[in-house]
Write a structure and sequence with these properties.
Blueprint lengths: L1 H9 L9 E8 L10 E5 L4 H11 L9 E4 L11 H8 L5 E6 L6
Parallel strand pairs: 1-4
Antiparallel strand pairs: 1-2, 3-4
C-alpha cells in the first residue's frame, strides 16, 4: 500500500482539460459485459462510487460486490479518487478499469 500512495503523490502529470476523465470498463471472469464500455466520469468520484455505479448498470443485487482492478493486477482503495488513478495509470488519455464480481488476478 505504501508504494501505491507514493506513486499517487509522485505520479506523472496528465493533462486534465475538464473535470471529466475518459474511463474504459472491461469485464473480467464471469462478470456481465456492459453494453457501453466508454464513459466520461467526474475525476472527483471515488472507487467506491464507481463500484456501486457499475453494479447498478449491471442490474446486480445490492449485496453483490463489484471489484475494480487497475493494470490487471491490483484493486485500488475504495476511497481513492478516479482522478488520482488517471494521473498515475492513465494511458492514451483514458483510464482502463477491469471489473469483476469475484476476486481475480491471484
Amino acid at each position: 500500500k505504501q508504494w501505491y500512495q507514493r506513486r499517487v503523490r509522485e505520479g506523472p502529470q496528465k493533462k486534465v482539460v475538464s473535470d471529466k476523465i475518459s474511463v474504459v470498463l472491461r469485464n473480467v471472469g464471469n462478470a456481465p459485459i456492459l453494453k457501453k464500455q466508454r464513459y466520461n466520469v467526474d475525476k472527483n468520484k471515488t472507487v467506491r462510487w464507481m463500484s456501486n455505479w457499475i453494479r447498478d448498470k449491471l442490474k446486480l443485487p445490492q449485496n453483490d460486490n463489484v471489484i475494480l482492478y487497475i493494470s490487471q493486477h491490483f484493486a485500488p482503495p475504495l476511497d481513492q479518487h478516479v482522478g488520482n488513478l488517471y494521473e498515475c495509470f492513465g494511458t492514451n488519455d483514458k483510464l482502463v478499469i477491469q471489473y469483476s464480481t469475484q476476486p481475480a488476478y491471484g
